[in-house]
Model the fold of this input.
Amino acid sequence: MPTSDQIKTLLLIKRYCKNSIFSKVPKPILQQLIGQYHKSSDEELKAIAQLSFDNADDKNNNEIERQKSIFDNNPDLEISILLHYVAFGNPTKVGELLKNSELLFKTGDVMLPSGDIVKCVAPYELLLGCGDSYEDMHTIDLQINILGKRLGIDIRPSKAQEAGGRRAIGCYQYLIFFPKYLSETVYF
Amino acid sequence: MKFYEYQEVGNDIYKILSFVGCPKRCGSFNQKPDDFQGIINLIVKSSLKDVQIALNKNFDRNTKLNSALKKFRQYFAPKVFTSPAIYFNYNNLYTLVQLIGDRWNDLIVKKDNEKCYDKRFLVCQQILGFVMRGLQWCDLQNYAEDLSDVVKYNPRPIARLNNFINEDKQDCIPISAIEAPLTGLGFDFWLGNTVKK
Done:
């Protein structure tokens, strides 16, 4: 059984750290954990426990709604998944996710298979950095071309791309959308 | 892994360069290579006992070679990138393979009138292999498929394999730094002629 100090800590974390794992502990489990301490003489523990139980139902409902909204609407999560698939070379999943072409302009953090962490990176920039210049990652190129047409910008493939085989990414395509990288030109 | 069955491990070492398309990329990225002379010289000068300690991964033993290898691993440890960059330095791999090729014959020790290849294994496994831990997934996929023809002659697209199977075809090998902190690539093997599809 947990000690009274451990229960106190758990209740405090549950109440004040909303994103912690303890904030999602269901009410019955909490009742079982602290039930025996309700009769104890520890006034502080009683007070904390009372506070936690008062708002438990509302909090649980809010938590469920919050989680739903995360998985349904959160673009940050989608960009993280997209970046992961770009880093781990999965063009099928990249193609599926890029049906939402707005993701090309989002940035996020990703861990590479080498253990390196890349912060605040866009999908195409990650593709360039990884040196993944094979044809099946063309979906990103295609999306950029479609966007270019919508914006009225003529984006032509580079000579190497026209020649076929391994594509050489003309980084000017990328720089149209991300001019801040002009000083960091990368040629394949 | 049965490394010690090989008498000559370096025959295919230059093939590594082709699977990442290394010469082409080195020329285009303008990356500066690091200096590997010091660590290779230290391994050449070290005693066979120290080399075997490092090769058996007894990193707790206090030897000069162990501390140098520790510094080397710290230098090539995973980094945090906050600005645009090419995440792997292909020139490092190119320079290192050339250097190992130059010192190839110095990495043999005679023991009991027989040639001992432990220094070669140490250099390949823990120096070359550890640098290879920084390779990106597309390069490793390329290697898993043994696609020197894809890199060189462009006849077909990459198959995007994610399984790396050892010679006995028994186990998948932990090849990424996330999966294997002190084992696998960079500690037990390198991407040479010992890993095949």
